[in-house]
Amino acid sequence: MTIQSALADWPYPRWIAHRGAGTLAPENTLAAFRLGASYGYRMFECDVKLSRDGVPFLLHDDTLTRTAHALHPHHAPDPQASAVAGDYPWHTLAQYDAGGWHSSTYAGEPLPTLAQIARFCISNSCFLNIEIKPTTGTERNTGEVVAHHAARLWQGVAVPPLLTSFDIAALEGAMATQPELPRGLLIHALEDQSWAQWLGHATRLQCQAIVCNHALWNTESVALAKAAGFRLLSYTVNDDAVAAQLQGWGTDGIITDRVDHFAPSA
Fold first, then answer.
1. Which domains occur in the chain, in start order?
2. Of 111, 158, 181, 231, which is most buried by a Cβ count within 10 Å?
């Protein structure tokens, strides 16, 4: 099955677990993916960036400060050194505890590579939304490298991961490297651009989806995006009334933290 034919009927589930399991487990870890799967979720969203030596791994922030800490004092960066994760090679980042910040239950949970997440998803017949989350200054290169690895890791799998980003340069890199991988443009706020301009960006990037802050959707914006041929996804939806409204408008995907509340079969 070609990627185009696999995507013809939009094969992804409606419900998507944010960063693995929302806030119930340390975000962007294998433990979170396992917990999300235990609630019946079959699609996950995660954030992927590059180590200094080009290894794609999961982390939301530019820095390690909030969610990752050195397991051993001698592995900690010098206090005067950068806390930016992308400034370190993977062999250093692999020593970090990405779970202890959340709770003692997850202490020692490591930062996962994209390859590890791919193995989990493929082995468990799960789908993935990879948000390309470049370290500042590495936008296009991160898009290129993540797309290259995604194509390699999911080679032969009927439904590939959906690559999304807020960063246009990252999506340009992904499109140039692996044009057949599906893409989605993330939108947080309209700011100084109209819906027509944002849809123009998505069209130029040959995106299949618009993934935006759920508050941006209304009857008018839904109609515009649908008329332009895009699938419509929303983040981060944790309220019953909002979820019901989005489903009523006929949107295609809902990213949620509340994996213990929303039944993914709904």
1. 3-63+112-256 (3.20.20.190)
2. 111
